[in-house]
Amino acid sequence: MVEVPEAASAVDRWRERTSYAKPSAGVPAHVTILFPFVPAARLDGAVVEALRAVAAVFEPIAYELRETRRFPGVLYLAPVPPEPFLALTDAVASAFPAYPPYEGAFDEVIPHVTAAEGPDDVLDDAEAEIVRALPLSCRALELLLLEELEQDAARWRGHAGFPLGA
User: Fold this and answer.
1) pLDDT per position in the chain (166 positions), as tens?
2) CA 105 – CA 74 distance, rounded (Å)
3) CA–CA distance from 98 to each of 34, 48, 117 (Å)?
4) DSSP string covering 91-128
5) In what order do the strands lie in the sheet with 61-71?
6) Backbone dihedral region of 143: left (phi > 0), alpha (psi from -120 to 50 degrees) or beta?
7) Which DSSP helix (H) or strand (E) runs through 74?
8) Can you say whether the dihedral through the CA atoms of 71, 86, 146, 106 is positive or negative?
9) Which of 3, 51, 110, 126 qualifies as a FRET site for 85, CA 20 to 30 Å off?
């Protein structure tokens, strides 16, 4: 993932209330690059070095979060421009072909920062609050690897960070 600390103050309250992957579970505001990924028990030196090599090819990414958008049951912020995130997703997925984005469930990967999840009335309330914080100027500096600690409890922690362009 690419952590988006600039969005935390706008979305974390809603993510905490509505999302499975929330701040108190160890998941920061972020743009997903590849999920699902290598299970924690199999995160070894080869995985770490492959991610480090991919991250080194990409320069830090300057982008903005200007507006909210929706998937069914999800309110999100779309990074502009999306292309660097798509390229990063493609590169990581190419390095780990056993782990296609979202298990291949979608024809198109849409880079996004989840802001809230739930029924339309909840998303409407979240959107009314979150849009007041936009636009946000952001800068992606590293690729962050999280590892799942407890599957059923959705507990995560940072395993390693890989600076972009290093």
Assistant:
1) 999 999 999 999 999 999 988 999 999 999 999 999 998 889 999 999 999 999 999 999 999 999 999 999 999 999 999 999 999 999 999 999 999 999 999 989 999 999 999 999 999 999 999 999 999 999 999 999 999 887 665 789 888 999 999 7
2) 16
3) 11, 16, 28
4) HHHHH-TTS-GGGG--SS----EEEEESSHHHHHHHHH
5) 2-3, 30-31, 113-117, 74-80, 61-71, 136-140
6) beta
7) strand 74-80
8) positive
9) 126
Terminal Cα-to-Cα distance of the chain (whole angstroms): 17
Tokens representing 76? 């999100």
Q: Which amino acid is at 110?
A: I
Reading the block at residue 120, the tokens are: 């339309």
